[in-house]
Amino acid sequence: MSQFTANQKAVLMSELTGLKRFCSSLTGDLHDADDLLQLTVERVLERGMPEDAHAGKWAYRVCRNLWLDELRAREVRSRYAKAEVAGNGDLGVSDAGGLERLEFERVDQAINTLPEEQRTVLLLVAVEGRSYAEVAELLDIPIGTVMSRVARARRSLADKIA
Amino acid sequence: MADIHTLDIAGQRDDELLSRLIDGECSADERIDLEERLAANAELRARLETFKANDAYFRSVTTARDHSVNAHVTNRIATSPVRRGRAFGPAYKFAVAASVVLATAAVMVNNLWNTPLSNTPQIDSTLAQALDTVPSSAEGWNIIDDERALRVVLTFPAADGQWCREFMLASDASHWRGVACKGAESWVTQVIGREVFLEQQGGYRTASAAVSHPIEQFIDHTATDIALSGNEEAALIARDWASNSGL
Predict the structure, then answer these.
(1) What does pTM read for this prediction?
(2) Number of Cβ pairs closer than 8 Å across A and B?
(3) B23 and A121 Cβ atoms separated by less than 8 Å
(4) Per the CB < 8 Å rule, is B76 touching A42?
């Protein structure tokens, strides 16, 4: 049985690129971002959403929750991996060395070294153009936290890029 | 006396203010105050420009990365069926003037389904009378004349106090699903398309998503409120479709 309306479907389609950027910001890796996006879409299609929900906001929250679940799972896996795979530091979290060498490399690296929660709010505000209130709703955090995280992200970037 | 800790806190506060200025999140008073300080303080201006430049870099870096969405993800959504909604969220009220939507919808669907408009069923007096009186139902058919059976699916309000009804119309030759709205004179078809919903034995088969989608899209864009309950619809029919502010 279908779980969303035609309008929610259209909104979800229109939000996909922004959602992919969000996935990329969360994971710090494009391949992981693809996987996370696919997982998000599958979850939304499988479980649906309330008829009065905004499909974009709903999908962002599903995405965020899935990523938190994944982080917890990775933390558990890493405990075993550390014991068994000495010297193998690749836990599948992020492959910064495999990223394209862009002319913006220094900035790119600075962005990637930001804590995930700062990088994500800065992406949503400075790149996606969302208001603090919207970001607070998407990430389920107080608006004051959004405000301070955005400022801290900009401050960190200024220090790193200087 | 200001120590390093105090200066750092002041710096953090300024960074937060500058951030909010960039993001358009300052109050009017904060903005005026900050602009005065910026005019007098070159260091603060430089900090603001640094933040703006880094934002621009961030946007460039983000844009430069490949954020295209895999085709199988978009296809997965595109091919998913949609819910037959009886409720329509207030967020989707009238992105476009409904009168324009109503005027163009028939043409849109005509293009979508490649059906010559002249071949679509017209709302004659018999069908109009049935639309006036037949209650909505999830099953069953109302024989309206020798050739046609009607099922009204739901009733919902549209622009300018208009009432619209989604219906299914079956005859030996064709089966249709559409939406008609009650104008000043009579019912006017807004969107309609061919659909196979009667099995040969007289059973019911659900519409394919591909066929229903334009109708659902039309309803989602046109409805100004949720579909009427059975009691509300019965009251409306009893009032001969006169609007009631209580509804």
Answers:
(1) 0.51
(2) 146
(3) no
(4) yes
